[in-house]
Amino acid sequence: MAIQSRKESWFIPTIADNCGFVVVETNFRMYAYSTSKLHCEILRLFSKIEYQLPNLIVGAITKESLYNAFENGITTEQQNAHPRVADKIPSVPKNVCDQIRLWESDLNRVETTPAHYYDEFPSRDVFEAACDYARDQSGLLWEDSKKMRLVVNAEIHMHMREFLRGQNK
């Protein structure tokens, strides 16, 4: 892969063989000067191809194209730079690296919701009534009808307890 920064005026070929190189610009555009089918496929993993000539492929790194690469097991930590690039930090324009890391973190983000787990209902009728009550309160997060288990948002926990106490009378 070859990297070029217009501001810093550096250009480094990062493909070890003599069949081509790739340029990554700070505007997320990629240019692959290569006739190698392997290089074409690699570029397709990372960018949305805009056009292709016999020895040039032009594409743009997009969130969607990177999600495709991530789904194929490629992560931002897997940077295989040519030894001449490894000495230069960053080997890809900093804004591109930062944005790629942000897009990857979007995929790894987990949203937590304080909740309470309920099981061991005395009967199916009580379980179904509890599910209906939680649903009516917009607090039902998950239910397993087969095993009579449910999870409700913590905000309605006290109301759910009162409701269940009334069901057991």
From TrEMBL:
InterPro entries: Tfb2_C (IPR040662), TFIIH_p52/Tfb2 (IPR004598). The keyword Transcription regulation applies. It is found in: Nucleus. One of its GO terms (cellular component) is transcription factor TFIIH holo complex. It holds the Pfam family Tfb2_C. GO terms for biological process: nucleotide-excision repair. The keyword Transcription regulation applies. Component of the general transcription and DNA repair factor IIH (TFIIH) core complex which is involved in general and transcription-coupled nucleotide excision repair (NER) of damaged DNA. Belongs to the TFB2 family. This is RNA polymerase II transcription factor B subunit 2. The lineage of its organism: Eukaryota, Viridiplantae, Streptophyta, Embryophyta, Tracheophyta.
